[in-house]
Write a structure and sequence with these properties.
The chain is an all-alpha fold and 353 residues long.
Length: 353
């Protein structure tokens, strides 16, 4: 029995809501089987169905990790790793809340990017409409004037006229393609699997936010596991999987393998070089048990603050940058298409005298 629909994963907002609700249930001491079943009756749509089916399967005696491992399309692998880490550490709410914070940051960033695109898209739409009008109506008149008054051909104007004559092939399809591409990006970026996939937005500030969010989750989950005296090599593997970052997962597995072989760790070696310097030093030289746990928790908070700074920077500056780059480029192209032919026309006329 699987839950969710066959059309893919739940949305990122739904995953955040599910994390928060499950964390609240566990903190309140409500058994997950009964709590999830009741939650399914309160939540709307697909999320309610998902919660109800999780509750039913828990009530039938299945373990939560087993339920999550059965469904790979609906729930992201990183979330299953977070749940397993939370169960292993004995503090499932903290692990779920860490993932909810990461998901909420990504969702907020996604909305900020879309909002920052609104004004540049309006500028592009107006400029595109003007360009279509220019090629279909203005350029033929200008080319006739050029031939009559300057008695010569103008290659650029001829190209614009040719472009306008074939407007049926591009005038509608280009913006339609753009709208469809934007809609596909918006839908794909809204899926829960986005939490472990940064390819949908390659902006440096966004990558920085994702990186710091994942480092925070890694440090926070590892802190929970160390506090419960889980062996460090197992904790590194679980935390790497829970972070959703391929680099951290590979580095954690490499360091764990070294620890299993009894090798000593030094910062920059044995995979520690893939971690930020301070985090790598903590893993290599930090005190065990409570001291290391507390330091990792402080590191997680520091990474959360850096992620928040990246988010605030993007919200403020992305609209300015997009408007300047897109609007400025469109304006220059429009000016080039209008004023270059006019200038050459005037020069050609002047040459007749």
């Amino acid at each position: 029995m699987s839950f969710g629909n066959s059309d893919g994963s739940i949305s990122l907002d739904q995953l955040v809501a599910l994390n928060e609700e499950m964390a609240a249930l566990v903190r309140a001491g409500v058994p997950l089987d009964a709590g999830m079943s009741d939650l399914g009756n309160d939540l709307p749509g697909r999320l309610g169905i998902l919660a109800s089916q999780i509750g039913q399967r828990l009530n039938q005696g299945e373990s939560l990790p087993q339920i999550l491992s059965d469904e790979r399309r609906t729930l992201p692998t990183v979330w299953r790793a977070v749940v397993e880490s939370g169960l292993r550490s004995g503090d499932l709410p903290a692990a779920l809340e860490s993932m909810a914070t990461t998901g909420r940051n990504i969702a907020d960033m996604r909305r900020a990017v879309m909002m920052s695109l609104i004004y540049p898209l309006i500028v592009v739409l107006i400029a595109y409409s003007t360009f279509v009008f220019l090629t279909m109506y203005v350029s033929p008149t200008m080319l006739d004037s050029f031939r009559t008054l300057a008695d010569q051909e103008q290659p650029f104007l001829s190209w614009l006229v040719w472009f306008g004559a074939h407007a049926a092939w591009w005038a509608i399809w280009l913006p339609l393609f753009g709208v469809i591409s934007l809609a596909v990006w918006w839908f794909r970026s809204s899926r829960a699997h986005t939490i472990s996939n940064s390819t949908f937005m390659r902006w440096p500030a966004i990558l920085s936010l994702l990186r710091h969010c994942r480092l925070a989750t890694f440090a926070e989950v590892l802190s929970l596991l160390v506090r419960q005296n889980v062996p460090l090599h197992e904790g590194l593997e679980l935390a790497g999987q829970a972070s959703g970052d391929v680099g951290l997962q590979e580095a954690g597995a490499k360091v764990a393998a070294c620890l299993r072989r009894g090798e000593s760790l030094s910062a920059g070696d044995n995979g520690l070089g893939a971690f930020p310097p301070l985090l790598g030093w903590l893993i290599a030289h930090g005190a065990r048990t409570e001291s290391l746990s507390n330091m990792l928790r402080e590191m997680a908070e520091r990474y959360r603050n850096k992620a928040e700074h990246a988010a605030n920077w993007s919200v403020v500056y992305l609209p300015i940058i997009f408007t300047t780059v897109v609007g400025g480029t469109v304006t220059l192209l429009q000016a080039f298409a209008v004023f270059v032919p006019l200038t050459q026309l005037f020069i050609g006329i002047a040459g007749q005298f």
